[in-house]
């Protein structure tokens, strides 16, 4: 194994852990992750304050917040308020990831999130926002003129969040990534709701659409197969879900999908015969991580 | 003249093959194998093999179902309990009886060795026994000042486990089978204030046709979330002897976390491998990825790991080969486990030698 496998990237930057007491020095192309161990003392609000005090805030472009103390019981609001209070000091902050936690640190369905309305109001220049976890997540219907990339990773996307997104306006949006999840973990929408969200957020800039980790992956694929605008995407990502032959059949027959350079269906339940047909019909298809159906049950890749 | 090796093991196992291949590579005669099943039927066969000078290595009785049941039966006799029906392959049952039988076997082995002054054990039976009782092992390490995760004591069932967490003010912890091997019967438990619970384990609950629920050890880790299932899994593990231990955070690597397996050969740190797992339990055979610790830890952390292993190995000073599992995280190191059979690391090299090459040379 090489170092690069350990590396994770966010917003095109290499993620580096920052530990309290260290100076805040950015190499070009790097972003810091602030993360607390299960047994660490103190709060993320304190840690973030110490970080910002030590940083050249005027030039800080990106930040990753990992595990905060007891993320399975406490939400991010206290440290989001620190950011909001200091928004004027952070004019360059363009990319924020809140909740970069592993399964060991906190099961994704247990991560307590918070209200992102005030943050989006305070950071009008924010271009990339990635959120992991949907429990207690709140999002108002909003308009944001800078956001290029919005991602919500979760085990189940609640209807209220979709409804809010469906009433929002993001004219610069290039990348939309929503993990739909399963009803076991809070997904209570359907393909019509997803269609409304995409209709509201799909502008001329949209190049990457990810509707991932979906137990309704077949329905999503059938719908997308008939949408002419799909042909204008650079990447369509339906990975991590329960896509099977029904959805694959629809994708196979879609001239729009065939024109998308990357169609990622990894973690799927598609039969070998249909995989072959997909490869022939959709040159950009990625079919990694095939799942063996177990007693006809299909599971999304990330639930609990 | 190289010393002859005698192995108490299982014919055809990876372990006996590994040692035999190492002997072949250096032109030694193949080790003399005494099979566990033969020894349990006829103790004299081992005494005969040990009568001339030799190095003597005990390998675990392994997956031999006949040997497993023979040890369970012997343990039941020793504890004055009824002999249960033979376990099914992979079933996690009666490990306390198995350990009692294994204790009896180690006692007999010690007696045999006392009559065989020319036989030099790689690991003496008393050490093997102490390391196979994971709680005893951790207590010994702790008493010697070796850092181990906080021990919360033996627990008889799920309720007792939760009571220990309550008393310690914790919302997560490990339930560990006392007499398991590797990850068998290890449960990572978590809860939150909304009343949700989760138990992550390789022990799978099987409800067989109207009978009582049973546990099977499988290679895929899964999580239970239904409170009744969490309780049942933990009750079944704890009924065979278990203890509670605090959760020590493991350092992160990518989307997973890792711990280290570090082999001590005659007390000195040697072969090492990092085990990266994405589902909390990182033992090698459970879908973990191997990595070179030097790619994940800095020089001072590696030194800390080595120093910790040196101190831990000294607790079992008579043992030549011990596998330690440990977590090194910043300025802290914790020993999770000492394994008297921890050298099954095929292909892993240190100083150009695999663990069996190195064991031959160290002996």
From TrEMBL, chain A:
InterPro entries: LRR_dom_sf, STM4015-like. This is Uncharacterized protein. It comes from Piscinibacter gummiphilus.
